[in-house]
Structures are given as C-alpha cells and as structure tokens.
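Run log // design_07
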C-alpha cells in the first residue's frame, strides 16, 4: 500500500511538471516518426521528418486551439519559404550568403510584433539550418528532387502541429493553470525575501537584502506578464466565463497579493531599531514564511486541479501577531511607528484572507486585460519601423546575428564543407542579445556538447543501431524537458540525438570530431560577434531605464491619488500604471545584473546605480503601500493627500526629466521635502498613515535626486 501511494505521488508530481505536456507531445511525435521509419524501412527518410517536428515544437506557443491553428499555419508558411529557399540557394554561395543575411535580419525584426512572432522567427532560422544539415546528410539533391527534403520537413512539422492542436483542444486551460502555478511559486519566493527584512539583527546588510528582493520581484513580474498573455489569448474581447473566469480571478488575486507584498510601511532598519527587544517583527517574519508556504500549496493545487484547506498554523501565527501588537500599545512608542506596524498587520491580514479564500474580488470590477499584440497592419508596421534604428537593441542584434551567421557560412565553406552546418547552428543558438546571456549559453553548449559526444561514443559501442532508434526519440524528449532550465543537459541530449541519428544512415563516429570542431568554431564566432559587431553594452542604457522607472512611478502615484476620493477600484488604467511601474523596476534590476557581468571598463559607477535600484525599490514599496490602503477619505483628508501627492508626482517627473536631459539636478528642499512627520488627523488613522507614506515618498525622491546628480556626467 505504501509503495502504491508512493508511485501515485510520483505520478501526480509528474503530471504537475511544467514541461510534462510538451514532453508527451514530443514523445508521441518523435516516437510515431521512428515507428514509421521502422515499418517502412526508410530510415534515411525520417531524418528530415524528425528535424521538422523538432523545429515545429520549438516554434510552439501556449495558445488556445483557434489561435494555435493560426500560429501553426503561419509557422508552416515560414518553414516552407525557408526550406525551399535553402534548397534552391545552397549550391550558389553568393546568392545563398545574400539571402541568409537578409532573411536573418527580417526574421529577427519580425519579433518586434510580439513574443509569438519572435518564437516563430527563431524556429524558422533553426529549420533553415536543419534543412542544410538534412541536405548535407543526404549527400546533395535526393532522387526526388530539390523539394523532397523540404516536403519531408514540412510533413514532420505538420505532424507535430496536429498533435499540438489536439492537445490544446482537449486540455484548453492546462497552460494557464501551470502559468498561475509558476506565478504563485514566484510570489512565495518573494514572501520569503520579504520575511528576511523583518529579522531585527545587528549588522545586517539591508542593501543586499533589497537587491535580492528586487531579483525575486523581477521573477514575479515576468510570471505576471506570462500569465496575462495566456489569459488574453483565451478571453480575447469576450467576457470571461466558466473556468477561465475562475482563473482570471486567481490572476487578479495574485496582482493584489503582489502589491501588498511590495508594500513598505516604514524603513525596515528603523523598525528593527525601534522594536529590537520586542517579538513583533519575529512574529511578522514567521507569518510571512507561512504565507509563502501557503502560496506553494496553492501552486501545487493549481497544477493538480485540487484544493487547499485552512491552515491552523497560519491562524495561530496571525493570532500571535495580534497579541504582540496589543502588548506594544501598552508601552510608549512613536505614533508613526505604531501606525506603520498596524498598517503592516492589516496588510498581512489581507494577504491571509486572500489566500484563504475569505475575500472574493469584486465580480463587477473591470476585468479587461490590455492586449499587447498589434491591433492592425498599420500598428504592426509602426512597431517594426520603430525598431529600424541603430540605437534599437533588436536592430543591433539582427545585424549582429546575421553577420555572425554569414561569417559561419564562409568559415564552413573554406574549412569544413562536410557536416559543417553545425558551425551555423551553434552560432545561431549561442549568439544572444546580451553579453552575459551569450557567454552563459556558450559555456553550457560547449560543456553539453563534450558530454553528449562522450555518451554518444559509449552508446555507439554498446547499443545496436536498431535499439538506438527508441533512444533517438527519448533524447529528443530529454532535450525539450531540459532546454529552459538546464541548457547544458539539453545540449548533451541533442548531441546524442544527432550522433545516433547520423548512425542510422552513415557512420556516427565520423561526426563526433566535426561536431566538436563546429561547436568550438561557432562559439568563437558568436563570442567575437557580441564583442565587435554593434556591441550592446548594458552600461550605455541606464539613463533611459532610470528615467522610465521614475516616470512609471509618477504615473502609478497619479493613478492612486484619485481613489482616496472615489474609493478603491482596480480599473484598467490603474492596473496598467501599476504593471508599468513593476515592469520598469524589473527591467532596471535585470539590466544592472547584466552590467555587473560585463567585462571591466564597459561600465562605471556601479555602486551608484545599485544604490539607485535599492532606493527605487524602497520608493515602489511606499507606492505599493499607498495602493494597498486605497479607500475613500474625508474631504479634509483628501485635500491634504492630493496636495502632497501632487508634489511627489511633480518631484518624480523632475528627477526623471533631469536624467533624460543629462543635467545635474539642483535639489531644492522646499520642492522635494526630506523625511519628516506629517500632521496627524484626529480620529483618522488611515489618512494619517497615507500622509506619512507620502512624506516617505518625497524623502525617497530626494535620495533619488541626489543619486541622479552623483551618477550623471559632471
């Protein structure tokens, strides 16, 4: 009985794995093709079919079946043009080189439309190289003519596409559930990062904790964006119904929790000093850890389509927090500190109620989601045209990748004409938009290739060609299972896949050393390209991102303030402003992380920019607090809040404009007030808390202004 339950547990865990559905589809597709090769006896014919299926799987997007059908048709059209063009131009080096360069630039620029088209464009480039590889293994033009290999590749792509469509139709909400599960996992990690700030320890590094929290917030923002795109795909312009409506409510709940997690009611170091001898901060830290565990339970329930019950430990922890607060009120403390802790407790209670399902979001709230896809051909063309600039990162990457592939083609024809297309394949995979991403993929690909060749050598020695066929399908599945999180393992698996595949029609040993040489050559070309072909050093970009962050914060605050007059309402404009603020801080965090990994001499004043990120993260925390406590206030309180809030908005805009203009900002304390106590409003604790938060916001504006003046060229 125990063994049965253990097996059942493993099975349900496997079902909850993010990539399980994709792996099953790939297994069915590749297994079916291998079975066809065995039955028909045409093992050579299945090579392009297998490559076509893999390329289509790489182009797959998590759409509902109607949109997936459109995507599949676009993918097959792009694949057809690419495969036929390669077959026709390959014997003509000059024409092929021109076509390769132009098509690479155009396909990369096509990604400006949306993530869907970017995925299709990348897979089309991969299929083009696969077509070269299949033609090379076939020894030139096959007996069926130039169109036979492209037709086989398209057959493999269509076969996988049909399986994908059927899967999507039979399980329309699975991808959304998994996206929500990843979102709640990311929220759990952020709650753990937040909890670390509540430990009142002497000598702790608050800046390091804030930077770690910024990285976790970056993951939450990415998960929110991914989930939103999947919900938009399934809802469209219709009103959400049924299961989709339930999942949409979960998404809005996650947004609300995210805003509350980011809330910062008072500087954490000041709280630690004030309550060092009290247990209230330890109680809050413990409660946050339990709420993180609760988020993980919810994530598992979403994957397994289950439910979670009440948690007595969380109830007990929250009761302990309330008891600690009551004891605090019996001892003398600054009113601002007590209000901050009360606000913190209120926030924790709201998160607790949301996770427990005690508070349902307003069903009549505006549930429209902003669709980021182009809404017309004119809009699509405007997006692409806006990227045709030497200053645009996408254009620079397009030129860099196209030139690197062209160099790879020249090297292949001069040095290694047979089986040499792996040079271009390696360059295509390794050459990423940023320096850090390129070197990370480069090292993992080289290590994975060496490991795959060693395992391949052992497999050819110990396994007969017939029994290698099932391994071909399994290694293809392993590649897709590992490609997002363990690229080195994925590279080893696809290398083993290639060695055994070639061994079915030739000598697998013969491609081992060429494969190693090609990987080294392609990696070297990609490394040189990222250094010398329109290098996109992140150190050149902070100014724009700093300004974007401050402008986004100003718009967020401007959307918060009117709701103290009208009451809380999560309308589309408010949600867009909140998302833009979080996207901006996440982009800044990601850019600074990449800058620190760039070679020396390419960036300056890293310490200033890191302090700017920390201050911006604290500012966003105070804005999130204002967003969390939105409610209708009295007329007198609203006037005071709006007046001081408008001052903070103007201050943020001034600092942002100074960054864009590369001017040293003259700081006037009369315009940008330092931290200070705001006047208390009798019998209105919420209004007083809001006014104190606005004072903290203006204090952070001053810090950001000082850092901006320190960072800018003198």
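design_07 sequence
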């Amino acid at each position: 009985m125990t063994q049965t339950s253990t097996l059942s547990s493993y099975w349900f865990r496997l079902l909850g794995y993010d990539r399980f559905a994709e792996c099953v589809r790939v297994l069915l597709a590749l297994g079916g093709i291998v079975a066809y090769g065995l039955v028909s006896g045409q093992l050579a014919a299945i090579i392009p079919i297998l490559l076509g299926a893999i390329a289509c799987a790489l182009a797959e997007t998590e759409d509902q079946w109607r949109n997936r059908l459109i995507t599949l048709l676009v993918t097959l059209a792009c694949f057809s043009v690419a495969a036929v063009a390669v077959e026709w131009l390959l014997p003509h080096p000059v024409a092929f080189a021109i076509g390769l360069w132009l098509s690479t630039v155009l396909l990369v620029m096509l990604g400006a439309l949306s993530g869907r088209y970017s995925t299709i464009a990348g897979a089309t480039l991969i299929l083009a190289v696969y077509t070269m590889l299949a033609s090379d293994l076939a020894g030139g033009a096959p007996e069926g003519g130039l169109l036979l290999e492209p037709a086989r590749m398209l057959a493999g792509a269509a076969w996988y596409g049909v399986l994908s469509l059927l899967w999507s139709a039979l399980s329309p909400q699975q991808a959304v559930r998994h996206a929500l599960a990843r979102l709640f996992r990311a929220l759990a990690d952020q709650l753990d990062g937040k909890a670390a700030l509540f430990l009142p320890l002497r000598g702790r590094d608050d800046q390091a904790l804030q930077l770690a929290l910024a990285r976790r917030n970056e993951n939450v923002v990415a998960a929110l964006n991914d989930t939103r795109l999947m919900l938009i795909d399934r809802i469209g312009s219709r009103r959400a119904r049924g299961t989709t409506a339930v999942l949409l409510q979960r998404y809005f709940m996650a947004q609300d929790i995210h805003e509350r997690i980011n809330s910062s009611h008072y500087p954490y170091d000041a709280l630690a000093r004030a309550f060092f001898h009290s247990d209230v901060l330890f109680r809050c830290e413990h409660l946050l850890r339990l709420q993180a565990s609760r988020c993980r339970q919810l994530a598992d329930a979403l994957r397994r389509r289950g439910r979670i019950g009440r948690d007595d430990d969380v109830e007990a922890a929250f009761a302990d927090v309330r008891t600690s607060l009551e004891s605090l009120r019996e001892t003398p403390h600054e009113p601002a500190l007590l209000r901050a802790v009360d606000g913190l407790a209120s926030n924790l209670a709201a998160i607790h109620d949301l996770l427990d399902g005690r508070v349902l979001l307003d069903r009549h709230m505006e549930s429209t989601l902003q669709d980021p896809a182009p809404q017309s051909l004119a809009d699509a063309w405007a997006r692409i045209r806006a990227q045709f600039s030497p200053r645009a990162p996408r254009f620079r990457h397009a030129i860099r990748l196209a030139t690197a592939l062209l160099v790879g083609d020249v090297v292949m024809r001069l040095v290694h004409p047979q089986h040499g297309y792996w040079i271009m394949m390696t360059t295509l995979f390794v050459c990423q938009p940023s320096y850090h991403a390129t070197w990370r993929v480069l090292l993992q690909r080289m290590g994975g290739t060496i490991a795959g060749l060693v395992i391949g050598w052992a497999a050819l020695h110990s396994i007969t060609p017939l029994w290698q066929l099932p391994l071909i399908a399994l290694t293809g599945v392993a590649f897709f299972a590992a490609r997002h999180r363990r690229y080195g393992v994925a590279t080893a698996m696809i290398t083993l896949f290639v060695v055994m595949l070639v061994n079915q029609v030739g000598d697998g040993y013969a491609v081992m050393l060429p494969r190693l040489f090609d990987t080294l050559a392609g990696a070297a070309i990609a490394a040189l390209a990222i250094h010398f072909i329109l290098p996109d050093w992140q150190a050149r970009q902070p100014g724009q991102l700093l300004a974007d962050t401050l402008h986004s914060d100003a718009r967020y605050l401007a959307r918060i303030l009117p709701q103290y007059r009208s009451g809380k309402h999560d309308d589309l404009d408010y949600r867009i402003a909140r998302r833009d603020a979080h996207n901006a801080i996440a982009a800044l965090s990601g850019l600074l992380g990449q800058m620190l990994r760039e070679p020396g001499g390419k960036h300056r004043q890293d310490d200033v920019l890191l302090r700017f990120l920390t201050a911006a993260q604290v500012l966003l925390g105070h804005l999130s607090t204002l967003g969390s406590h939105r409610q209708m206030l009295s007329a007198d309180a609203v006037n005071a809040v709006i007046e001081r809030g408008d001052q903070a908005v103007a201050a943020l805009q001034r600092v942002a404009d100074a960054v864009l203009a590369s001017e040293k900002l003259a700081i006037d304390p009369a315009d940008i007030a330092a931290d200070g106590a705001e006047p208390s409003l009798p019998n209105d604790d919420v209004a007083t808390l809001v006014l104190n938060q606005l004072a903290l916001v203006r204090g952070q504006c001053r810090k950001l202004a000082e850092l901006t003046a320190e960072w800018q060229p003198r």
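The radius of gyration is 28 Å.
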